[in-house]
């Protein structure tokens, strides 16, 4: 089953994990990734990120990525949740959860989904700092490199 | 008409979420951008300074992609989610 | 912090995850892997695995693997829990939990720990089937191949 | 003396968890295995049929590894955890 969600409200990763676990033991391996708003330790630190997206297109991109992951690896359940709006430091932004009979399939699919999400899903991040300033985050070439591993 | 959407820094700097553009025959995405640039120096400056990506009807397309009446064209900087 | 445990009693992956999450936002990425007893769907199905280990040596091997992961990647917290004794279908056998500032570091460290654990930690698995028969599991060459990626 | 431990299928087939072996000068792991094989046809058969790995004092070692009085030697098949 696929479960792709783009939502404003916070999600609970542990709860999502628990829902996938109840599979009667069909899957030998579960990989969960959470990406969170990181305290950057700057003197004028990041206090929150603001996530904008392209409603409609984003969901389509994510659904296609999940289909592509399913074509490449033997995976059972996929949950992909991405928050939008303002997200405070320490809160989760994104969750990728994959179950599979085999661990390498689960790991590869989860990494693929994150790498491709970062470079192809229509989300944009703005940093808000303690002094009230804000700035759009620039795309990283390291993310492009990570995504191109799968081509 | 073509419905044009702007996102993120592009939306903010243009001070515009969306607008309608007349669709001329044989028009492609970069023609639409030239058209938008003609709206004034601020528009020209923003497009000159932004690495601009395009999606037509919610699918990524190159700037050479032809546009048709009724299309939804979205313009935005490189994505930074996750 | 490292937390390496070899134990008879069941653990709760969601609870371990929750404990790692409470870091004030220091880590942008958390990767959790759980390996579980899989229902194999055979006509005479596996009902449980029995895990034997070499007390003393196993813990040392796992601690060394965590140190090696720390030397190779920038990771913050590591939890590595492996059960021994009889484990029923659907129950967790092993947990690897890694937090890091960066997602690729967390993914690589978690995969490394699992690949190396499979081939160097002194655990042995026996399958118990519905008809009461049991059989020691044989080592897989695919696990050797996975582990040798890191050499 | 050397303390010898057996694990998994090796332990089960030999019907033995652990035993003490006299340590002769210059003895290595494979000498210890030869000594164990001399205990009877069942022992010889099991060692012939098992891909046997060794740890001396809880560190993996090759079969050529020299043994000293007081060492802990563990013999076992390839590991299968995780």
From TrEMBL, chains A, C:
Keywords from the named record: Molybdenum cofactor biosynthesis
Pathway(s) where this gene product acts: Cofactor biosynthesis; molybdopterin biosynthesis
Classification via InterPro entries: MoaE_sf, Mopterin_biosynth_MoaE
Enzyme class: transferase
CDD domains listed in its UniProt record: MoaE (cd00756)
Coiled coil regions in record: none
EC number: 2.8.1.12
Catalytic activity: 2 [molybdopterin-synthase sulfur-carrier protein]-C-terminal-Gly-aminoethanethioate + cyclic pyranopterin phosphate + H2O = molybdopterin + 2 [molybdopterin-synthase sulfur-carrier protein]-C-terminal Gly-Gly + 2 H(+)
Family, as annotated: Belongs to the MoaE family.
Oligomeric form and interacting partners: Heterotetramer of 2 MoaD subunits and 2 MoaE subunits. Also stable as homodimer. The enzyme changes between these two forms during catalysis.
Protein's name in the database: Molybdopterin synthase catalytic subunit
Lineage: Bacteria, Pseudomonadati, Pseudomonadota, Gammaproteobacteria, Cellvibrionales
UniProtKB/TrEMBL annotation, chains B, D:
UniProt entry tagged with the keyword Nucleotide-binding: yes
TM region(s), chain numbering: none
Coiled coil: none
Keywords per UniProt: Nucleotide-binding
SUPFAM superfamilies: MoaD/ThiS
Entry-linked InterPro entries: Beta-grasp_dom_sf, MOCS2A, Mopterin_synth/thiamin_S_b, ThiS/MoaD-like
Sequence similarity: Belongs to the MoaD family.
Protein name: Molybdopterin synthase sulfur carrier subunit
Organism: Gilvimarinus gilvus
